[in-house]
Write a structure and sequence with these properties.
This protein is an alpha/beta fold. It is built from 11 helices and 14 strands. Bound molecules: magnesium ion.
Length: 373
């Protein structure tokens, strides 16, 4: 029993399904509603491939190579990297598939008219820059002001892999919802407007019974990874993160193997991959997409057509939320990325400063519409 605890959300597998999308032209930017943008051509979307199928059980060989490929694919270090894309996909065609949410702002606003916008924001790489030391991933005062303003007009949630308390220390806004540990730990606003009736500040903790196990694996990984310079282990309460953004790429394979060997002793935990981070989580089926659905339900929008959820994130783990929005046919996802990536998001923004501009424009637009009433 060495493999049951390993899963990744996506893989550069080479196994794919071909789909054809309808033709469009340069009028795309003036006529599109915020749905998956259509563009000419035929492209390949790789199928999901659970990592356990790549795992042959021993140390080294194909298994390690597969891990390192995945680590590279999810952690591009060069702007021009297209490691996770089909060969014929380039930056320009990717931007046609996933145009800038700033360029498409008017269309987005038109599509949201008459509906309640609910804002979901990832933290690292979305509101704060990705930095070498995750403890130093501070958001700027300008970004904090933009998020605070958004929360004045729209229910707003931070959805993060980090533990709720830790992200709160960065964001410092009591008027938001916080879904920490990939949504396994959800808390409502401590002040300001509450969209959910009653005093339900702690709304949900999906995996309380796993807390002692998480603590144990955290301590073991802390010890084991001491031999890998730059590796940083973080206890995020309901999950453990092993950051490798400061680890020499030559040591990634050994680090991944080390983490997997520890995980073999914990079949109720699984391993997934984020942006320059390996994450250990309970095997329960809970992710950022489930957190999004839970919050929409808590806010009273479970079966409503009058809601327009917007989810902004930069990470592989945000894809679960993007997929939920696609399946619901409501709102849209925005991927924060400078490089083309396979994504279920409809739009893109390049970096946190663009996220801030998008949030500001949303607030400005709302203020203008309120004045006009
Ligand atoms: Mg992120």
């Amino acid at each position: 029993m060495t493999n049951q605890n390993v899963m990744v959300s996506d893989a550069k597998s080479g196994v794919g399904v071909a789909i054809t999308v309808s033709m469009s032209n340069s009028s795309l930017f003036s006529s599109m509603v915020p749905k998956p943008p259509a563009t000419p051509g035929r492209f390949i979307i790789p199928r999901k491939k659970p990592l356990k199928k790549l795992d042959t059980g021993g140390v080294g060989g194909a298994r390690v190579n597969a891990w390192v490929d995945l680590m590279r694919a999810s952690s591009p270090t060069h702007i021009k990297s297209t490691a996770s894309l089909p060969e014929n996909e380039d930056q320009n065609s990717w931007m046609i598939h996933h145009p800038s949410a700033l360029h498409m702002f008017e269309q987005i606003i038109n599509a949201s008219k008459g509906k309640q916008i609910v804002m979901f924001l990832d933290y690292d790489g979305t509101l704060s820059p990705i930095v070498e030391d995750p403890d130093q991933a501070f958001m700027s005062n300008e970004m904090r002001a933009a998020v605070r303003d958004v929360a004045r007009y729209f229910p707003t949630a931070i959805v993060t892999g980090r533990c709720r308390d830790k992200v709160y220390k960065f964001v410092k806004l009591a008027e938001l919802y916080y879904a920490g540990s990939h949504g396994m730990d959800i808390k409502g606003p401590a002040k300001g407007r509450r969209y959910i009736k009653g005093d339900q500040r702690v709304l949900f903790q999906a995996a309380s019974e796993f807390l002692p196990m998480i603590e144990e694996v955290y301590k073991i990984l802390l010890e084991k990874t001491k031999s890998t310079p730059g590796a940083k282990v973080e206890n995020n309460k309901f999950c453990v993160s092993v950051h490798f953004r400061c680890v020499d790429e030559k040591k990634w394979a050994a680090l991944a193997d080390q983490v997997k060997l520890v995980l073999n002793e914990f079949p109720k935990l699984r391993l997934s991959q984020g942006r320059k981070v390996l994450e250990i989580r309970p095997t329960i089926k809970w992710d950022k997409g489930k957190a999004l659905e839970f919050l929409l339900e808590s806010l009273g929008y479970a079966n409503s057509n009058d809601v327009f959820p917007v989810y902004i994130g930069d990470d592989r783990t945000d894809e679960d939320a993007f997929k939920v929005l696609r399946n619901r046919g409501q709102g849209f996802g925005i991927l924060v990325s400078k490089v083309p990536k396979e994504t279920s998001a409809s739009y893109s923004l390049q970096e946190p400063s663009e996220v801030m501009n998008f949030l500001r424009r949303l607030v400005e637009c709302k203020r203008l519409s309120l004045r006009g009433q």
